[in-house]
Amino acid sequence: MTFAAQILTLYPEMFPGPLGISLAGRALADGRWSCSPIQIRDFAEDKHKSVDDTPAGGGAGMVLRADVLARAVDHALEAQPNAPLLAMTPRGRPLSQTRVRDLAAGPGVSILCGRFEGFDQRLFDARPIEEVSIGDYVLSGGEIGAFALLDACIRLLPGVMGAASSGEEESFEDGLLEYPHYTRPQIWEGRTIPEVLRSGDHAKIAAWRKAKAEEITRSRRPDLWERHRGVPDRSPSGARRETKED
Ligand code: ADE
Asked: Structural domain tally of the chain?
């Protein structure tokens, strides 16, 4: 089955861009996914083909018009009624590996990429759109976010990653960051590969990797560490629930 990606953008020439080379590029050539950029401006109806206007209430920047965007969105929904419709915006729910896995298991995605100050809110009120963010920083448009989301999905499609297991032990799959990797030479600038990795004792190696993954997660990402240990959340008072190991 082909994972079908529709990308609604003012810059369709950006696609497939970086997704046309390497792993995703080979998968595209092999028909494991398809890439259909759609020009939002084609859905503008005035003679200037305008897609945006000044913000109601005043202020800087321009806002993408609900009427024009809705026509583009309706076109995408008609072409792929079963694919989730996502909009890339810093206001969205942060993208997670869990969501990526779900998306990659489905028929594809339609992705709306914004520019300017954002979208007219009525678009989100009137259409089934899931707002997605790729992090707490502001990009100049949603296209870079769409690349990130698509890349994360494509590498999980059947037959795309060489060794099927290489996706299972990596960062986030079990809520932990990945353990460190090493390869030859055995000694480099006086630094050696940890002895345990040369022991051939698979149980010991697995235990070492687990301990390292936990250590790295704990020091770099206390938020992930707490979740991994099963702390559901902080109560409104700020008090913390008991954890597995407390
Ligand atoms: N568009 C602008 N900033 C973004 C972000 N952080 N995530 C997703 N889309 C965006």
From this structure: 2
Q: How far apart are CA 40 and CA 5, in angstroms?
A: 15
Point out the ligand 1 atom lying closest to the alpha carbon of residue 88. Answer: 9
pLDDT of 246 reads: 42
For residue 206, the model assigns a pLDDT of 98
Tell me the torsion sign for CA atoms 37, 43, 49, 52: negative
Instruction: Assess whether the previous peptide bond of 158 is cis (omega < 30° from 0).
Output: no
Distance 208 CA to ligand 1 centre (A): 37
- 194-200-203-209 Cα dihedral, nearest 10 degrees: 30
Reply yes or no on whether the pLDDT at 83 is more than 80.
Answer: yes
Distance in Å, CA 136 to ligand 1 centroid: 8
Last residue of a domain, one of 126, 154, 182: 154
Count of Cβ atoms closer than 10 Å to residue 2 Cβ: 14
The helix/strand/coil state of 44 is: coil
